[in-house]
């Protein structure tokens, strides 16, 4: 899901094809990818927080540790 776009790659793509339409299309792809990635992370974070709450309610230490580790890894990526 995640594409790694760089400013240099963008400039190369625009330079090869001086078409404004091509540049706009590439920018739209980048923005859409960033948006979808953000939404996915937020949904994953919300799900993990709910599972952490449930593990606390159930006094399930191993589940709590597993979900908090996943949440920490998710937060480190940001």
Task: Provide structural commentary.
This protein has 3 helices and no strands. The chain is rod-shaped and about 60 Å long. It has helices at 7-16, 20-57, 61-77. The protein has one domain (7-77). Helix 2 (20-57) runs antiparallel to helix 3. The protein is mostly helical and 78 residues long. The longest helix is centred in the middle third of the chain and has 38 residues, at 20-57.
Fold blueprint:
Blueprint: H1 7-16, H2 20-57, H3 61-77
Helix pairs in contact: 2-3
Report a brief summary of the structure.
The chain is mainly α. The chain has helices at 7-16, 20-57, 61-77. It is rod-shaped and about 60 Å long.
Q: Which terms summarize this structure?
A:
78 residues; mainly alpha; 3 helices; 0% strand; rod-shaped
What gap, in angstroms, lies between the N and C termini?
16 Å
Beta percentage is under 5%
Average of per-residue pLDDT values:
86
* Helix amount: over 70%
């Amino acid at each position: 899901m995640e594409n790694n776009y760089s400013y240099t790659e963008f400039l190369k793509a625009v330079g090869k094809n001086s078409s404004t339409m091509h540049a706009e299309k590439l920018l739209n792809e980048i923005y859409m990818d960033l948006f979808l990635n953000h939404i996915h992370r937020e949904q994953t974070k919300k799900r993990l927080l709910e599972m952490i709450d449930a593990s606390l309610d159930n006094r399930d230490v191993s589940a709590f540790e597993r979900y908090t580790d996943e949440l920490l890894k998710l937060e480190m990526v940001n």
